[in-house]
Amino acid sequence: MKRIILTGGGTAGHVTPNIALLPRLKELQYDIHYIGSYNGIEKDLIEPFHIPYHGISSGKLRRYFSMKNFTDPFRVLKGFHEANQLIKALKPDVIFSKGGFVSVPVVMAGKRNHVPTIIHESDITPGLANKLSMPSATKICCNFPETLKNLPADKAILTGSPIRQELLTGDREMAKKFCHFTSDKPVILVIGGSLGAAAVNQAVRNILPELLESFQIIHLCGKGKLDESLINIEGYAQFEYIQKELKDLFALSDIVISRAGANAICELLALRKPNILIPLPASASRGDQILNARSFERQGFSIVLEEESITNETLLDGIHRLYKNRDTYKKAMSDSGMQNSIETIINLIVQASQK
């Protein structure tokens, strides 16, 4: 039996593509292990799948000044030592990394132990963690054609992002019951990301009375970001985070408002959901979400609204315009020729584990 180590963490976007690979890996009878941080979100997300989970020390490598910059390098070194010991003990045939800072010591330890390692870059431009991991990688998968020029030509492969297949099997009626919704109004799904997005949450809540005249709203607002004053409002269902019922909520939704994390928007593409993207601003990120969103806008999949310039009027107008033209966006997504990402990546894993 071949053994694989999956790694990635820090946000749900660094974990869910790994989860998408699990059914096929199990079909191929791989012995699957996961390396993540001691108490990161990845631990909670992986636990339901009953896969051996191994925690290591993790530190964040920041581009800006922080007192933690003086201590986190020691956490990274400790993480490398722990990852190295785990790899020596587990003797995997291959490693697959979805990124995040916890993955860096795992990928480097993989190279030190001569284990072939495949990494996946979701965004148009590689993040710092994957930039550090690239020299140790055997192959580098990516989502966007624009990314290929930023990667080593002998390692880069355009694969798209693995999408959890259960997301395609949602039940609209189950979602209606879950949210206590009726059938007389269309549904907007608002996704703030696994950690929530205060600006997106506030923008939607600012126009909630106007929205509820025409729509019902499912709002995934992030941990600790529920608004107690809006509980029990008819046509508005808010949740901190949803996992099991997410496929049903997607099935029920007519349009989606979302951040522009690469994995999130690839799910919207696979589900053919017309969407408004509100990317994380450059002032709060390295600008990757803006690039992701603009790529989707150019391809006719999305309307993009910049967080800094959103007003009640522009958001309302965007929502009504998107809903009115939803069939045009659906057709563009249907014509996109999205690749079979799971099989492409699984083939790379199989090839690497046979060497």
UniProtKB/TrEMBL annotation:
Gene Ontology cellular component list: plasma membrane
Catalyses which reaction(s): di-trans,octa-cis-undecaprenyl diphospho-N-acetyl-alpha-D-muramoyl-L-alanyl-D-glutamyl-meso-2,6-diaminopimeloyl-D-alanyl-D-alanine + UDP-N-acetyl-alpha-D-glucosamine = di-trans,octa-cis-undecaprenyl diphospho-[N-acetyl-alpha-D-glucosaminyl-(1->4)]-N-acetyl-alpha-D-muramoyl-L-alanyl-D-glutamyl-meso-2,6-diaminopimeloyl-D-alanyl-D-alanine + UDP + H(+)
Keyword Cell wall biogenesis/degradation: yes
Major location category of this protein: membrane
Compartments in which it is found: Cell membrane
Membrane topology: Peripheral membrane protein
Record-listed E.C. numbers: 2.4.1.227
Annotated metabolic or biological route of this protein: Cell wall biogenesis; peptidoglycan biosynthesis
GO molecular function: UDP-N-acetyl-D-glucosamine:N-acetylmuramoyl-L-alanyl-D-glutamyl-meso-2,6-diaminopimelyl-D-alanyl-D-alanine-diphosphoundecaprenol 4-beta-N-acetylglucosaminlytransferase activity; undecaprenyldiphospho-muramoylpentapeptide beta-N-acetylglucosaminyltransferase activity
InterPro entries for the chain: GlcNAc_MurG, Glyco_trans_28_C, GlycoTrans_28_N
One GO term (biological process): carbohydrate metabolic process
Glycosyltransferase family 28 N-terminal domain segment(s): 4-140
Binding residues annotated for UDP-N-acetyl-alpha-D-glucosamine, in chain numbering: 11-13, 164, 194, 289
Top-level taxon in the UniProt lineage: Bacteria
Keywords: Cell cycle, Cell division, Cell membrane, Cell shape, Cell wall biogenesis/degradation, Glycosyltransferase, Membrane, Peptidoglycan synthesis, Transferase
Glycosyl transferase family 28 C-terminal domain segment(s): 187-342
Main function: Cell wall formation. Catalyzes the transfer of a GlcNAc subunit on undecaprenyl-pyrophosphoryl-MurNAc-pentapeptide (lipid intermediate I) to form undecaprenyl-pyrophosphoryl-MurNAc-(pentapeptide)GlcNAc (lipid intermediate II).
Family: Belongs to the glycosyltransferase 28 family. MurG subfamily.
This protein's name: UDP-N-acetylglucosamine--N-acetylmuramyl-(pentapeptide) pyrophosphoryl-undecaprenol N-acetylglucosamine transferase
